[in-house]
Each structure stands twice: as structure tokens, then as C-alpha cells.
Design goal:
transcription regulation, about 290 residues, DNA-binding transcription factor activity, seven-stranded mixed beta sheet, two-stranded antiparallel ribbon, LysR family transcriptional regulator ArgP, Arc Repressor Mutant, subunit A, alpha/beta, D-Maltodextrin-Binding Protein, domain 2, about 20% strand
């Protein structure tokens, strides 16, 4: 029989990156964290945590964390069927891209006041990796699947516009956006995983360019940086429609938006438990995303 307090400690170390941060999250001492991890490793006869900066679970450790997530889903389903007065709100871990979080996901989550959400923020091209490793129960991804053991539901496409301030356009692109100006003009990039700017340049010009860029990992900050003339970038249409109408942002090429398809992928093990949330996610997506073909 596995000790689920030890499994929860293992998950906390992996997610928080250190024994000290795991201790703070669990309201126990770092010594107690160390003792639990050591006891679990000794019992199973294998290394479960790679000590370092940050600490990360090994493959056997990840399998145990995945098991813990699966048990949590089953317990949530049981609580829906039986009057279990545990006093604890269930926690659901989901991977989601920052722009979806900033534009349409939160209303879906807000419809579930009796649930806690642990959101992992990652690029839509990489959020599926969290689900593949079993570290989340569901993910909003840019991958159509299939993913073993998971359901995949198309949600629609998030439309992006290449935007910059009028002053930026006057300085860097007075004759418009073409391969030559885009190669020189400063761009704004969310992170090293963000390919939207380069994808748009290729779709617009056919050129494979890597422009000089700011790195700014904030959806709202991204919009503000563009408004202030720091650079140009791909912003969700839903976030910038008013700024475009007010003339505070310009569309580099109004006839060339970039539509990014999104999918809801969730473990089949939790299909019944997640069904209400899946419906809410689909309804919220329908309000903002371009309907799937």
C-alpha cells in the first residue's frame, strides 16, 4: 500500500523545485519532506528525485505523480456520487497557454467555485507535454492529437494580429511590413518557445527570419509593450480590438491574421469527472475562438 502523504510530498518537490518550497506548500518542515522522500525511495528501491536546482522527479517518480493525479480524479468522481464530507476542495491541474488564459479560459473555470485549479502556463505547442507526462489532468494545446489515453476536442482557433504603435510603424516600417523591414524592426516574443512572430513572417513574406526581439512573458505586458512602441508582435485579436479601433495600435497587414487552432485534451480516466468542465471550456471557447471547420 502506497503512502499518499509521501506521494503528495514527491509531487510538491517536483512542482516547487526544492525541498524548502515543498515544505512551505505542505506546511511541514524541510526535514519532514526529506524523510518522506527518503522513506518512499527506500521502500521502492529506486531514486525518485534528482536533487539539484531545481529538483525534478525521475521517470519512476513521474509515474508515481501520475498515479497520484489519477487517484485524485477517482476520488473527485466518488465525492460526486457519495456524500463524503472531507472538507477539502478537489484540486485540478491543467496546462494552458497564457493567451487563452488572458482571453477566454477564466470564465469557464469560474463556473466551478467548489474546485481549486492549479494552472501550468506553457506555450500551446508544448502544453501537451505536461499531459503526456501525466503531470496534469487536461490541457489546452495546439496539437490535434491523438494522445494515448486522452480525449481530444477541437475548440476553434485563436486569431492573432501583427500589431505595433503608429510611431513604431512610422520609424521602422514607413512603407509597410515586408521581409526587409521585418528583418530589422524589433519584435516582441513571449519566450524562446514562442514561434508566432516567425510563423507570421513566413506566412506573410515567405522568408525565414529571426528578427531582433524583446522577451516579455506576459500577455497584458505584451500588448502594452506594443502600444508603447517597443516593438511589434502577434497579439490576440480579442485583447487588442479596442486599441485598434482607437488607433493606439496598427495592424501590420489587416488581410493577414494568424489563426492558431486549439484543442482540449483530457485523460479518459477522468472523463466523467471532467465532463462538466469540458462543457464549460467548449462554451467559453465558442464565445471567443473562430469555430473549427
Amino acid at each position: 500500500m502506497l503512502d499518499y502523504a509521501q506521494l503528495a510530498t514527491l509531487a510538491a518537490v517536483h512542482r516547487r523545485g526544492s525541498f524548502e518550497h515543498a515544505a512551505a506548500a505542505l506546511a511541514i518542515t524541510p526535514s519532514a519532506v526529506s524523510q518522506r522522500i527518503k522513506a518512499l525511495e527506500e521502500r521502492l528501491g529506486t531514486l525518485l528525485v534528482r536533487r539539484g536546482q531545481p529538483c525534478r522527479a525521475t521517470e519512476p517518480g513521474l509515474r508515481l505523480i501520475r498515479h497520484l493525479e489519477e487517484v485524485a480524479l477517482m476520488e473527485t468522481a466518488l465525492a460526486q456520487d457519495l456524500p463524503l464530507a472531507t472538507g477539502d476542495l478537489p484540486v485540478l491541474r491543467i496546462a494552458v497557454n497564457a493567451d487563452s488564459l488572458a482571453t477566454w479560459v477564466l470564465p469557464a473555470l469560474a463556473a466551478f467555485p467548489d474546485m481549486l485549479f492549479d494552472l501550468v502556463i506553457d506555450d500551446q505547442d508544448h502544453s501537451q507535454d505536461w499531459l503526456r507526462r501525466g503531470e496534469v489532468a487536461a490541457a489546452i494545446t495546439g496539437h490535434p492529437g491523438p494522445l494515448q489515453g486522452c480525449d481530444t476536442i477541437p475548440l476553434g482557433a485563436l486569431r492573432y494580429r501583427a500589431t505595433a504603435s503608429p510611431d513604431f510603424m512610422a520609424r521602422w516600417m514607413p512603407g509597410g511590413a515586408d521581409a526587409a523591414t521585418l528583418a530589422r524592426a524589433p519584435a516582441i516574443t513571449f519566450s524562446d518557445k514562442d514561434r508566432l512572430q516567425r510563423d507570421w513572417i513566413f506566412a506573410r513574406t515567405g522568408a525565414r527570419l529571426t528578427p531582433p526581439t524583446h522577451r516579455l512573458a506576459s500577455s497584458q505586458g505584451f500588448v502594452e509593450a506594443a502600444r508603447l512602441g517597443m516593438g511589434w508582435g502577434m497579439n490576440p485579436e480579442a485583447l487588442i480590438a479596442d486599441l485598434l479601433m482607437q488607433g493606439e495600435l496598427c495592424d501590420l497587414s489587416p488581410d493577414h491574421p494568424l489563426d492558431v487552432p486549439l484543442y482540449w485534451q483530457a485523460t479518459r480516466l477522468g472523463r466523467r469527472t471532467l465532463a462538466p468542465l469540458t462543457r464549460a471550456i467548449r462554451a467559453a471557447a465558442a464565445q471567443v475562438l473562430i469555430a473549427p471547420a
